[in-house]
Structures are given as structure tokens and as C-alpha cells.
Amino acid sequence: MPNFRRLGRHLLMTHWKVRQTFPRKTLQAIERAISAGEASHIGQLCFVVEGALSWAGLLKGLTARERAIEVFSQQRLWDTEHNTGVLIYLLLADRSVEIVADRGIHQKVGAREWSAVCRQMEAAFQKGEYEAGVIAGVESVGRHLRRHFPARDGGTNELSDKPVVL
């Protein structure tokens, strides 16, 4: 049985609302935070915001976690030299944050730590503080990456730091 409340939130989430919540200046600030963090570690961080799920996803009851795993694969975050790709995924209609980490970093940082970062971000979103919430999340993920995968000479930025809006 579909969750009609969730269905309504997703149907009412337009691309315009996503852009209103994440205007260009906010996306640029997030990109700067990712770039600054990646200067201190060899991890590859990607932030993706998706307004709403497709009809098919909604009808089959796709969770934010399941969609985040799909997006992790689509963004090729598993294809980094040191297996340190990390996705911060926001499903805006649900205000749900998921972090998916490649095996290299997931072995060092467990689900409890990632969950704490997600809940911190969601708390900021509850107050309407989207830019601050994402940047705080990026910085928290960066601290974990810096601890386990500090920067090395000659490290390269394998993936774009630009936030992705789906």
C-alpha cells in the first residue's frame, strides 16, 4: 500500500523548489567546502540532491537509502584509486540524508558515524538551514577522511567537486 503522505510530498516537489532551496550561491558554497576538504585528504566526496523520486520508485517503495546506493553507482564513486569515494545524498521531498561510502573508507568509518552525520544534517534542514547543514556534513565527512586518508603529495582530484542536482 503506497504511503499517500509521502506520495504527496514527492508530487509537490518541483524542480523550481529544489532550485529555490539550493540556489547557485549555495551550490557554489558547497563546492568550495568540498574542494577545501579534499585538499586535506585523498577521499573523493560528492554531494547529490534529488528533489523527488520517480513514480516507479515511489510505487515500489524505494527508500532514500536504496536510491542513494543507485546514485553512488551512477556517479561512479566506487571507481576511485584508493576506494575512498563518499556520497552525501539528500532526498529533499523526504528531507532524508544518506551517506554511502566505498569499501576503503567504510572499513574505517562505520555506519554509526555516518548516521550521526546524517542526523546532524537533517536537524539543520528541519530549521531550514540547508546550506549550513550541508557544509557541516561535508566538514564532518572530511574529518573522517582526513583521519584515515590524509593528503599525500601529488594527490589528484578524481571527481568533480560540483554538487549534483537530479
From TrEMBL:
A Pfam family recorded for this sequence: TPM_phosphatase
The organism's place on the tree of life at top rank: Bacteria
InterPro entries hit by this protein: TPM_dom
Residue stretches making up the TPM domain: 20-142
UniProt-listed Gene3D superfamilies: 3.10.310.50
Cross-referenced PANTHER family: BLL7265 PROTEIN, UPF0603 PROTEIN YGCG
Protein name, entry field: TPM domain-containing protein
Species this chain originates from: Pandoraea eparura
Lineage of the organism: Bacteria, Pseudomonadati, Pseudomonadota, Betaproteobacteria, Burkholderiales
